[in-house]
């Protein structure tokens, strides 16, 4: 094992296959416990999960490891990833852990960590924890028997998070008269998200709220927003909201059934913040995957866009370094740093609906702010992840594509941090050119990395 134990969003893989085996996860908890334990006081770790059946495996493996490392464990049961981030800092815990593979199918699972302030761990800390897992041996300084930890069930976790979400909406705003379609992906938000919207006055049509341990993300949620879009038009609803399995991202549909991605939501929210003088430095932070149209949009409105590598934790790191308060990803991870320390799909939907109410405009009208450039993304299965710059055929194909774009578009190649995939993206104003170049590049990548 090495620091590659962690991907772009924690540890992730197929259940009962390396690295998602009970022994590795228990050793991971031991290592993390030794890292976060500081002095002779009692230490706390908060552990939450999504609705995958395999969550039971890792919940107890983590509990065992953290207790052995001398930390008291508080189990929340199924709860969104951002809820664990919030509760970790709210309860003054030393570390928070989420058992989830996010938008992946039920056969996968994963582990994410948050520090005591609710932020995801930087690469250096993950590398230190991973190195200790690799060096598992008798010289680990584990506590004496009387100093091991205990495990508790946290009974009021859902209620605490519910109140936190509602407090992000001013008291003079409610959603009475609004009808929403809410898809919770049979995932971690299946209880709390409907409660929050209903308590704020909205009429809620619920789907994806019947988890059985195996149906998380299965043809529901943010990866399949077409279902929400269809139901919005059928029910004559005002907005459709599609969360993913751990509810840290959101995709929405307007009242006409048109799907909006994270870039379009960011444009709406960034302009609102700009107009209210609430966007420090007039800065929006997004990743290399965000559409060029978002850059143009920010510039046209007197602001600027700062790009980061893919991963909401890199967005957050840049936001903290630059003093920014808003950022996100095209995939629907949206971070409102004045409210939360990580991407929160439910919170983002609440902020979007708040803008709809304040402006008295339907979502379809707000959505006209950003007209994305045509963009094509192809996922290519690869046998190895050789740096693209070390593959002459790929380098040559990229140069040819960039020459064809002539400065009116861009090419982006990157590897998935959690799967054996290369992501090939092309965007430009000319849709036909985008389609042609992306297809050609994908073929070259597939052949070169087979």
From TrEMBL:
Boundaries of every Alpha-D-phosphohexomutase C-terminal domain copy: 377-443
Gene Ontology CC annotation, any one: cytosol
Originating gene: glmM
NCBIfam families from the UniProt entry: glmM, PRK10887.1
Keywords: Isomerase, Magnesium, Metal-binding, Phosphoprotein
Active site: 102
Residues annotated for Mg(2+) binding in this entry: 102, 244, 246, 248
Organism listed in the record: Solidesulfovibrio carbinolicus
Identification of the protein by name: Phosphoglucosamine mutase
């Amino acid at each position: 094992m090495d620091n590659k134990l962690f991907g772009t969003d924690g540890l992730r893989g197929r259940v009962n296959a390396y690295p998602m085996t009970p022994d590795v996860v228990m050793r991971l908890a031991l290592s993390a416990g030794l890292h976060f334990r500081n002095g002779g006081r009692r230490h706390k770790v908060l552990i939450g999960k999504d609705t995958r059946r395999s969550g039971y495996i890792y919940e107890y493996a983590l509990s065992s490891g953290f207790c052995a490392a001398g930390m008291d464990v508080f189990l929340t049961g199924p709860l969104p990833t951002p809820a664990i981030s919030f509760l970790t800092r709210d309860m003054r815990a030393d570390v928070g852990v989420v058992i989830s593979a996010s938008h992946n199918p039920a056969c996968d699972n994963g582990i994410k960590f948050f520090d005591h302030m609710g932020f995801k761990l930087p690469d250096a800390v993950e590398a230190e924890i991973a190195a200790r897992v690799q060096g598992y041996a008798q010289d680990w300084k584990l506590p004496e028997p009387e100093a091991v930890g205990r495990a508790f069930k946290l009974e009021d976790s859902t209620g605490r998070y519910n109140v936190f979400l509602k407090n992000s909406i001013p008291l003079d705003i409610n959603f009475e008269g609004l009808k929403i379609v809410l898809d919770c992906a049979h995932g971690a938000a299946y209880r709390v998200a409907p409660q929050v919207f209903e308590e704020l006055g909205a009429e809620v049509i619920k789907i994806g709220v019947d988890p059985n341990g195996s149906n998380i993300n299965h043809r529901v949620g943010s990866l399949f927003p077409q279902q929400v879009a269809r139901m919005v038009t059928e029910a004559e609803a005002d907005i459709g909201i599609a969360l993913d399995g751990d509810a840290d991202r959101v995709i929405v549909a307007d009242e006409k059934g048109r799907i909006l991605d994270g870039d379009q939501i960011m444009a709406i929210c960034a302009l609102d913040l700009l107009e209210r003088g609430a966007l420090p430095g007039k800065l929006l932070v997004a990743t290399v995957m965000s559409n060029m149209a978002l850059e143009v949009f920010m510039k046209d409105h007197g602001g600027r866009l700062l790009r980061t590598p893919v991963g909401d934790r890199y967005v957050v790191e840049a936001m903290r370094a630059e003093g920014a308060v808003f950022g996100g990803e095209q995939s629907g991870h949206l971070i409102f740093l004045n409210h939360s320390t990580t991407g929160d799909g439910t919170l983002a939907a609440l902020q979007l609906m708040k803008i709809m109410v304040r402006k008295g405009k339907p979502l379809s009208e707000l959505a006209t702010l950003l007209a994305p450039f045509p963009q094509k993304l192809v996922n290519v299965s690869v046998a190895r992840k050789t740096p693209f710059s070390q593959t002459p055929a790929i380098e040559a194909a990229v140069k040819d594509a960039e020459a064809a774009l002539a400065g009116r578009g861009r090419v982006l190649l990157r590897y998935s941090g959690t799967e054996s995939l290369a992501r090939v993206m092309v965007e430009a104003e000319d849709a036909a050119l985008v389609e042609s170049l992306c297809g050609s590049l994908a073929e070259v990548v597939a052949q070169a990395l087979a």
